[in-house]
Design a protein that fits this description.
Strand content: under 5%
Number of strands: 0
Largest sheet: none
Helix content: over 70%
Structural class: mainly alpha
Radius of gyration: 23 Å
Length: 71
């Protein structure tokens, strides 16, 4: 028996309402991961530009050390 089959067997032991809630939660988690991956892939140009700007500011000595205690 595969791990997936074991999980399904455990889910089938739940009352129908809990099964539905569990399945809805799992599907939402899977879609959230897909949305995150898509968003991250779509933002790579923006992130690259921001990183370049940050490096320019650092090299131009326009940055300051961060004091975690002052946050």
């Amino acid at each position: 028996m595969t791990q997936l089959e074991l999980v399904i067997a455990e889910i089938e032991k739940l009352p129908p309402e809990e099964q539905s809630q569990f399945v809805a939660w799992i599907l939402e988690e899977l879609h959230a991961e897909e949305r995150w991956l898509t968003s991250f892939a779509d933002s790579s140009d923006i992130l690259s530009k921001l990183a370049d700007e940050a490096l320019e500011e650092y090299r131009a000595k326009k940055t300051q050390n961060l004091d975690p205690d002052a946050l």
